[in-house]
Design goal:
The chain is of the alpha/beta class and about 325 residues long. It has a single domain, classed as TIM Barrel (Alpha-Beta Barrel). Helices cover about 30% and strands about 10% of the residues. The protein is built from 11 helices and 9 strands. A 9-stranded mixed β-sheet has the order 6-5-4-3-2-1-7-8-9. The longest helix is centred in the middle third of the chain and has 16 residues. It starts with a helix and ends in a 15-residue tail after the last helix.
Length: about 325
Amino acid sequence: MHDTQPLLAGGDFPAVFRKPLEILQVNLGYLCNLSCVHCHVNAGPKRTELMSPATLEQVLTFAEAANIHTLDLTGGAPEMHPHFQHLVTKARSRGIRVIDRCNLSILEDPRYAGLAEFLAEQQVEIVASLPCYLEQNVDKQRGKGVFKDSLAALQRLNRLGYGQELQLNLVYNPQDAVLPPDQHNLEQAYKQHLQQHYGIVFNRLYAIANMPIQRFGSMLVSQGRFDTYLELLRGSFREDNLDRLMCLNTVSIDWQGAVYDCDFNQMLAMPLGAAAGRVHIGDLLQQVLDGASIATAAHCYGCTAGQGSSCGGALEASL
């Protein structure tokens, strides 16, 4: 796989600085039941990296001490971590909002029977990846049969109250090296199609740009399209998106407990605030984050291009 970090280093992205910390995005490991083309983590069934129980406890300790209001769990498939349910239960018992970034198909895996019911019981918010509402496109991007499993999972979640009193948000990723379409219009198309054809309902759609890193970035390099895509992102820069970047109030924790400014910087091994070395979650309370600089490189244009992009979808939608 091609290393895209040298192609992104340096650059002229504007300086950005932190606001008070509110969200911990925790990558529980790279193990996943899928190997999606657009995956910026390069996750898959053969990955073995998983967060240790000791580090999980450090995450909980920090979250409580720092008065963190949201724990955003990702992977890989975070649900495949053997202590996923323990972490969720502990966080919810402390009044912390929990988001599960779910690929949906994991809910149909017999090895995880009862998982959907557990999420509903704990009132976990689900952010579910469904890169298209058409079977051919989803299976092309995620693997044969994933679309049908995703629909079955969504219908299961609806029966449990998700998309109604429980929060269920879907995630769209472009099929190629293009910017996502208008999030509001796409959300309406998703809702109409899924309701009409499958009786599925959900709350919000998040349109997220593909980042030119890891598996997706490597594919662009192989096809000779990396520079073209980067220029598209840079040329679509909007300055007003800078005030709503997700990295302003969020830090990303990797499976070893190292802290980064965002999930994308984590995949590029860019330390928190461009520090000389890695900062561990166990030492984070001693760091002054409010007002600190954020490590940036050329991939950051992916978050500021067009309508903007974050783990909560288009930045314009947050206005």
